[in-house]
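Homework help board

Subject: predicted structure for assignment chain

Our instructor gave us this sequence and asked us to write out the predicted structure in token form, then describe one feature. I got the tokens but I'm not sure how to describe them. Can anyone check?
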Amino acid sequence: MGVEVEDEPCSSVGAAPTITYDSGADAAYIYLVPYVAPGRASHQVVVEGVPGDSEIVLDFDSEGRILGIEIIGARSCLTQDLLRSAVAIDSNGVSDQVSS
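My token output:
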């Protein structure tokens, strides 16, 4: 039994999640779907009990499907290898990789 997801802009069955990282804000986002349109995340849940100074927020669509995971204080709970491999984002746009 599979989950049928409609309205995705591209097909990515079996694709790995995309991770973005804003080093200035120390915030990462793990996309569990190919694209999250503005306003699509209609419900957010803050994860309780996260050790350290990080905050984790789960984004859901209006049908209860999880779209992604936001991590504030990413340096304290994600590995440096993972952060280096993430797509770098900031107020100036997107680059290929996070510089160390």
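Reply (TA_rk): Your tokens look well-formed. For the description, you could write something like this. The first strand starts at residue 18 and ends at 22. That's the kind of observation they're looking for.
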